[in-house]
Design brief:
Number of domains: 2
Distance between the termini: 83 Å
Oligomer: single chain
Largest sheet: 5 strands, mixed
Number of helices: 8
Radius of gyration: 31 Å
Strand content: 5-15%
Length: about 280
Amino acid sequence: MDLFASILVLLGLLGLCLALKPAYLICAYSQFSSKGWLTLLLLITLFIVSYLSYLSLLLKNQVTINFIHLVVAGIFFAGGWFVYLVTHLSKQTISNMDILLKEKNHQANHDSLTGLPNRQQYYRHMDKVIAQKPDCFYCLMLDINNFKMINDTFGHSEGDRILQIVAERVDSVMPEGALAARIGGDEIAIIIPDLKEKDISIIAKDIEQALLIDIPCSGHLIVIGVSIGIAQYPKDGQDRKSLMKNADIAMYHAKRSEIAHQYYQVHLPSLQVPHL
């Protein structure tokens, strides 16, 4: 009977030891951590010490085993595994909640078609950059040439696939610290940190070159052309609205002039742009 009681306590102790890891992982989730879980982690540790003490008494035959002690050993066994199940299931639930929250956050901040940051994230990022009052950064507006014709000719599903490829290629040539976002339709907005103007021109040319690679589309090979407008902070605007407006003006003039990219210049006439 004493051997059976010792085995029950030992198994209960195993359950408590296994409960330490999920309890610790729950405490490691900053958004779910609380004093309650920290207290539980401490209590599990104290339970382990108590179990070890009782097990030591049993093994040293310092306790005369009777039915009551056997019941206590059974409670120790059940208690240890109860704590393990509670912590393990709680950890699984919290992990699932954490994954769901991350997915919701990603969906709220990214375009569902291209995976690029969306308009809202772009606005927040630019406002954050402006609030830091940097010496300079660049706002680029990119529009796919003749995209309506692509949709009309090959269908919207092919148009969506082309948008995905364009977004992937544009994002692949972004320098460190830059952010490219789809802000609607076939338009991509880009924020690039402080660089010399010739470097911005190189980045614009990198985008153009990346899109010159043929894209298979309904049995045909097509090349995507883009028009890019470039505005510089603070020279061309000191707030998000004016920077995007001026980059848009430059982009539409690039499209009208059939050139790949255009810097904003004060003498460029204003146009009706869709972001105001």
